[in-house]
Amino acid sequence: MNTIYFEALTPENIARAADIIRAGGLLGIPTETVYGLGANALDEKAVLHIFEAKGRPQDNPLIIHVPDASWLERYCESVPEAAYRLAERFWPGPLTMILPRKPIVPLRTTGGLETVGVRCPDHPVTLAVIRKADVPIAAPSGNTSGRPSPTCMEDMREDMDGKIDAIFDGGPCRVGVESTIIDLTCTPPRLLRPGGLPLEMLEDVLGEVAVDKAVVSLLKDGEKPKAPGMKYRHYAPKAPVTVFTGDPEKSARYIEAHLPASAGVICFSEFTGLYPGHIVHDLGSFTDKAEQARRVFDALREFDHEAVTEIYAQCPDASGLGLAIGNRLKKAAGFHIVEV
Ligand code: AMP
Ligand code: MG
Questions:
Q1: Per-residue pLDDT tens for 208-249?
Q2: Strands 180-183 and 95-100
Q3: What is the Cα–Cα distance from 219 to 215, expressed in whole angstroms?
Q4: Per-residue pLDDT tens for 147-188?
Q5: Of 50, 60, 147, 184, which is best to mutate to test ligand 1, by the most ligand atoms within 8 angstroms of its C-beta?
Q6: Ligand 1: does its nearest atom lie under 6 Å from the Cβ of 179?
Q7: DSSP secondary structure letter of residue 303
Q8: Is the CB of 116 under 6 A from ligand 1?
Q9: How many angstroms separate the CA atoms of 13 and 169, rounded?
Q10: For the chain, where are the E strands, in sequence order?
């Protein structure tokens, strides 16, 4: 297949991209979080092609993308008032809500679940394509299953060129980690995935929020995850990763003292000079978590083009965006963590 690349946000390109969606095709879509691999969420056959292109297990549900909160009742049953409060405050933005699905949303899209994840992305290209197509777009991240998520058009090209109909270039992603996922079908609401919207901001609106165990630790064999996607290996570069938590100065020194000769490093900007002779990726200053979020997937992805036998990574504390950044690093490491 010859993949088309749309570059400018013009009415013609939006119309062509929307036609691809309506015709059951696959479209790489830019969002503020990461690039997505999109198809008409209501078209089972189109959705099946998403799973095939990514090599994604069929029971790992997709998020459906809508242009505003008025579409919630088209696709969700008994929408609680809290969903509208969250949408009012955080949409468009990096927040996915889990709600009961209406039958119009195929089980193929929800990975067989009676619930559906819904999000309104904050990107003019994707909002325009959804409105023009007049159907919700189902889209997981646009990477091959198991690889780090794409945060620019080039990353998406690397994984999907020749496999999908088109990719729309919307520039580099402003947030860089996927959406925060909150399950509103239980009491209290449950955080299933930390992401671009900090937990503290959700708590501000919802009060108590439960944090799913899979967010902070590896599930044991036989333990059933609340979200099926949680059981799969994620974000992993080819070389094994070890994550070092604790005070940044201390973990940087610890890595310096223990780093194997052929290992690469992901560290905060302040410490890049400590590891001469090693391949080092700069995660951004330890005072700037927004920058760390934008860089984390790129840092992991780059190592696939470089000769390292393993990767040592520094990790921010869990406040604000740190929970999401740390979660992506720890998942990449299979929760292989050293507390310094
Ligand atoms: P991705 O965008 O590639 O990270 O994939 C979408 C994520 O959303 C997966 O990890 C799913 O587990 C999660 N998700 C989507 N729909 C649901 C749902 N109905 N219930 C729980 N998790 C969901
Ligand atoms: Mg993904």
A1: 999 998 888 877 766 766 666 666 667 778 899 999 999 999
A2: parallel
A3: 9
A4: 999 999 999 999 999 999 999 999 999 999 999 999 999 999
A5: 60
A6: no
A7: G
A8: yes
A9: 11
A10: 4-6, 27-29, 36-40, 63-65, 95-100, 115-119, 137-138, 166-168, 180-183, 190-193, 210-211, 241-245, 263-267, 280-282, 310-314, 337-339
Nearest CA among 199, 203, 202, 224 for reference residue 213: 224
Ligand 1, atom 2, lies closest to the CA of 140
Q: Residue 82's pLDDT is what?
A: 98
Å from CA of 123 to ligand 1 middle: 20
Closest atom of ligand 1 to 141 CA is: 3
Amino acid at 225: P
Distance, CA of 63 to CA of 297 (rounded, Å): 20
What tens digit of pLDDT does each residue of 296-334 get?
Answer: 999 999 998 898 999 999 999 999 999 999 999 999 999
With a 6 Å cutoff on the Cβ, whether 178 touches ligand 1 is yes
Bridge-based pairing state of the strands 27-29 and 166-168: parallel
